[in-house]
């Protein structure tokens, strides 16, 4: 069905299961469209599946408005932040009062949920817990434990928060994290076992808890026999695993098994041991130049990755000096390398966002590097100022606010980012689904007690029962 409409509404298409405005699709329902109005029959022309209405047809504005009203009032089109501007234009031009009311109701509900979310004391409690646990270090373990007890947080959320710290920490604090889990286990029987199981599951799926798992091996809380016979361990585990079970990754350096003491020391540091990389990390451009000169190094050369670099557990691929400069936010080294490095192939917005240096990010943008694939990294590192700046300047757009956006926000507990986009860009209905999906029991309880969600939908109840047995 094609409407060729005057003025600001240039083109509206309802074809198959899509409602399209200026080539932007919004999900619809073809079967519903066919049955909602007998008057649509006369517009079937060349195809039984395509209904066409154009200015050449003898059709009044009133009749067109009636057709559109029937489509919208039968819930064929869902109002979202992606579709709302188009629908507001249609409602205004054709004076569809019922659609105007629906749009107004949508905005009011969004606004009410936004204020509910940012002002809810239980959500503030959850956010305070997350802020507290991030302060964990070797010197304050018992203090943090006592503070966390006051929040009454579920095992699931507590464990995910601890593992999240391990994955994102630039330093090796895994021993401290495991010690904390042991202390919690004294008060919550079974906590440590759940913690180990969760860390192992992530390790098997994507290796992100690799350093944490190695520490569990070190403390004899895990053994390679706890894993499937055909599971291949990364080279980091050469001190615990038979050679036949080690996955020798090409391009990664590791020391001989006979030098285990040095191996353990490097794991504890969690850094690429190359002096070049250390100079960049400290943003010491003079020392970097000295190393380059003494080695007679081609500045464009690929840098050999190290198994001891904690950045690799998060899926980064840093193979250039400039990449490391962006990753560490080392602006002086970055500028030096920018001037002397020939190709822009090594510019990575993801690494720049991780480093959090706005000047480096600006340089990447000015050189035409797309920012879209860096949103997950910004969410992960809680660089929310960069997220807001990038979105408001058009470097992120609504297409970036997809399921991966929600997944990242809940995986990395970035509710501050969610609250920013809740105001004008994302629909609150998704909240409960992802709270359940990521086992955030506290948030599920809070949302279920509110009046914003209809839990009587059979698919949601089934999903809830499958995921939780304690709600």
UniProtKB/TrEMBL annotation:
<dbReference type="InterPro" id="IPR020683">
    <property type="entry name" value="DUF3447"/>
</dbReference>
<protein>
    <recommendedName>
        <fullName>DUF3447 domain-containing protein</fullName>
    </recommendedName>
</protein>
<dbReference type="InterPro" id="IPR036770">
    <property type="entry name" value="Ankyrin_rpt-contain_sf"/>
</dbReference>
<dbReference type="Pfam" id="PF11929">
    <property type="entry name" value="DUF3447"/>
</dbReference>
<feature type="domain" description="DUF3447">
    <location>
        <begin position="351"/>
        <end position="418"/>
    </location>
</feature>
């Amino acid at each position: 069905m094609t409407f060729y409409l005057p003025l600001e509404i240039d083109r509206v298409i309802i074809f198959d299961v899509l409602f399209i405005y200026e080539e932007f699709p919004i999900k619809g329902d073809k079967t519903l469209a066919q049955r909602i109005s007998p008057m649509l029959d006369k517009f079937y022309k060349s195809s039984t599946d395509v209904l066409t209405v154009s200015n050449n047809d003898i059709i009044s504005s009133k009749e067109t408005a009636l057709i559109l009203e029937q489509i919208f009032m039968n819930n064929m089109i869902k109002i979202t932040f992606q579709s709302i501007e188009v629908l507001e234009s249609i409602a205004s031009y054709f004076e569809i009062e019922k659609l105007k009311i629906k749009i107004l109701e949508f905005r009011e509900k969004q606004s009410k949920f936004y204020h509910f979310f940012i002002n809810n004391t239980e959500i503030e409690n959850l956010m305070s817990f997350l802020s507290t646990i991030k302060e964990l270090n070797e010197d304050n373990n018992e203090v943090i434990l006592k503070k966390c007890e006051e929040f009454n947080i579920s095992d699931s959320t507590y464990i995910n928060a601890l593992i999240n710290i391990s994955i994102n920490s630039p330093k090796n604090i895994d021993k401290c994290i495991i010690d904390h889990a042991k202390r919690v286990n004294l008060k919550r029987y079974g906590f440590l076992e759940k913690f180990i199981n969760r860390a192992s599951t992530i390790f098997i799926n994507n290796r992100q808890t690799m350093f944490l798992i190695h520490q569990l091996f070190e403390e004899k809380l895990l053994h390679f026999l706890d894993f499937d016979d055909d599971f291949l361990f990364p080279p980091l585990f050469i001190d615990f695993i038979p050679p036949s079970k080690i996955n020798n990754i090409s391009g990664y350096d590791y020391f001989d098994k006979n030098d285990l003491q040095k191996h353990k020391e490097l794991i504890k540091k969690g850094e690429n041991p190359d002096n070049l990389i250390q100079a960049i990390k400290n943003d010491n451009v003079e020392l970097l130049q000295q190393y380059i000169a003494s080695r007679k190094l081609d500045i464009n050369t690929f840098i050999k990755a190290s198994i001891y670099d904690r950045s690799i557990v998060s899926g980064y691929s840093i193979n250039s000096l400039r990449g490391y400069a962006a990753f560490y936010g080392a602006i002086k080294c970055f500028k030096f390398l920018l001037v002397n490095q020939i190709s822009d192939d090594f510019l990575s917005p993801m690494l720049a966002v991780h480093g959090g240096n706005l000047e480096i990010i600006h340089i990447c943008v000015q050189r035409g590097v797309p920012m879209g694939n860096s949103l997950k990294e910004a969410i992960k590192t809680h660089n929310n100022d960069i997220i807001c700046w990038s979105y408001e300047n058009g470097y992120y757009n609504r297409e970036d606010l997809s399921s991966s956006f929600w997944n990242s926000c809940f995986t990395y507990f970035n509710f501050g980012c969610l609250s920013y986009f809740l105001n004008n860009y994302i629909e609150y209905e998704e909240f409960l689904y992802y709270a359940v999906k990521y086992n955030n029991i506290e948030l599920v309880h809070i949302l279920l007690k509110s009046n914003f969600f209809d839990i009587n939908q059979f698919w949601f109840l089934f999903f809830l029962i499958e995921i939780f047995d304690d709600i």
